[in-house]
Amino acid sequence: MLMTDTTLDTNLRKYANLLVHIGVNITEGDLLHFTVNVTDDPNIRKLAHYTVEAAYQAGAKYVDVQWTDEVTSKLRILHAADDTLDYVPEWFIKKVESYAEAGVARLVTFGRDPQLFAGLDSNKVTTMQRAGRAATAYLVPKLIDENVWCGAAIATQPWADVVFPDLPADERVPKLWDAIFAATRVTEDDPVAAWKAHQQDLVNRGKYMTEKQYTALHLKGDGTDFTIGLPKGHVWSGGGSDHSSGKRFAPNIPTEEIFTMPHRDRVNGTVKATKPLSYNGNIIEDFSFTFKDGRVTGFEAKTGGDVLQGLIDTDEGAKHLGEVALVPHSSPISQSGILFFNTLYDENAACHIALGRAYAKTIEGGTEMDEDQFVEAGGNVSQTHVDFMIGNHDVDIDGITIDGEREPVMRQGEWAF
């Protein structure tokens, strides 16, 4: 049963409040850069207005709203001259730099069409996106490790059409809003209080795993036999991030994970993806990777193999792992049974790993290390960071102690501690 207009409006207000108070945790005097899709849907405009209202009520000094339209990127690939696709204007770089330097909180909403770039020349897509990442790569550590930021979903027609193709067209977007609200605990009487309790549970689990200081994790089941080495001093994070000012924020809403960095040179074996991956406007299905001494040595894919090749060719760091995350099979997103074709949501339904950049905060002293020191400690540096799902109820995970003993971390997809 779909929501009534009144219920939808109430939930949109609750969602906006959650994004402001938990997502970016706006307080007196903060600056907020808010990105939202241009759309004909009045409910997305309502959410945008409710979010701006909530931010100012929370004390924001200024809210900068940037309306975006992803179709313009597709039009560039289709019609721009090939030799211009790697062009990034200097003013764009300066704009991103100004956000980083001013400590602007960033709230990004997404509802991307998972098949936006399907059928297009993957080399053109890769060229355009790689150029954009490379131009601002020097700012990424500051934006991720020092600034407040949050990514959250909105229900758009193109996305809903992929997620619920069997429903009548006019029921798909309301159904997707239902799913978003359930996954983000908006349906609770007090979503902010529910989130704080949920965050604390993840913080406690992260502390437990950090204290264990396993030298490696071993994953086995459903086509996966995979060992992920962990560096000395690694830190498990979850439930949000802490800004230097002391405020806590949620980089992703929803989140069900605790995560840390693998050692870039100590990953071995074969790992099979348990869900499709939506990447660069393409859907990649039935794929697996083989690693030796931390580096991808081969992969297989039923569909999207050329897209995966483009991903691992981004740079040397894209051939190594930057994250391992643990998520219980009982998470709300997993139990919904919905395949969202969106990494932020689907990664919260299953344990996952990421090719590319590691987060500096996931190793002791990481935010004070320069790039060479970070790599020496086992961290990975890359222009990209792409998660894909490797867990389900058939995958067991053991922690390997410094003495070589094995301890259960997850059994049949659930916490074993």
- Report the principal-axis shape: globular
Number of helices: 13
Gap between N and C termini: 37 Å
Helix and strand content put the structural class at: alpha+beta
**What's the Cα radius of gyration?**
21 Å
Please characterize this protein's 3D structure.
There is one protein chain. This protein has 417 residues and is α+β, with helices and mostly antiparallel strands. It has 2 domains: 5-191, 3-Layer(aba) Sandwich (Thermophilic metalloprotease-like), CATH 3.40.1830.10; 211-237 and 256-415, no CATH class. Helix content is 35%, strand content 25%. It contains 13 helices and 21 strands. The chain is globular and about 55 Å long.
How would you briefly describe this protein structure?
This protein has 417 residues and is α+β, with helices and mostly antiparallel strands. It is 35% helix and 25% strand.
